[in-house]
Amino acid sequence: MPDKIRFQIEFLINCSPKVLYNRLSTASGLTEWFADDVRVKGRKYTFVWDETEQTAEMTMQKENRLVRFNWLDEDDDTYFEFRITQDELTGDVSLLITDFSEEGEEQETKDLWETQVADLKHVLGS
């Protein structure tokens, strides 16, 4: 299996880290923009899109700063991570997403995140 390529994509989000964190770390928050449905059992999150289900485990969590999910059905160390940063001077809040894609599919994966984050911003009124 070819190695996946790690990439990061950053978005400016016009809301507080606390409000943003809630949308990234809870089933109800993730259902608003990331997946059609999200079921949580302990640290395992099952994401549902149309007829597809994928389960990930929340492996890292820092309140209002970071959430990382590792896919359970992938046999490598791929994950997706939401990191919230706030500029000390301007107060601007950024969402830095780290994800992995197959070689040659980086742009498609980034485009998908662009669409998802547009939904997130809409939900946040950002």
CATH architecture: 2-Layer Sandwich
Query: What's the level 1 CATH class?
Result: Alpha Beta
Give the CA-CA distance, first to last residue. Answer: 39 Å
In angstroms, what is the radius of gyration? 14 Å
How helix-rich are the residues, as a percent range?
A: 25-40%
CATH homolog superfamily:
START domain
- The tally of beta strands, per DSSP, is 7
Give the amount of beta strand, in percent: 35-45%
Query: Could you please say which CATH topology applies here?
Result: Alpha-D-Glucose-1,6-Bisphosphate, Chain A, domain 4
The figure for the number of domains is 1
Helical run tally? 3
Written as H for each helix and E for each strand, in order along the chain, the element string is: EHHEEEEEEH
Write up what this structure looks like.
The model has no long low-confidence stretch (mean pLDDT 94). The protein has a single domain (5-124), classed as 2-Layer Sandwich (Alpha-D-Glucose-1,6-Bisphosphate, Chain A, domain 4). It has helices at 17-25, 27-31, 106-124, and strands spanning 5-13, 37-41, 44-49, 52-62, 66-71, 79-86, 93-101. Strands 1-7-6-5-4-3-2 form a 7-stranded antiparallel sheet. The N and C termini lie far apart (39 Å). A hairpin with a 2-residue loop joins strand 2 and strand 3. By secondary structure, the chain is α+β, with helices and mostly antiparallel strands.
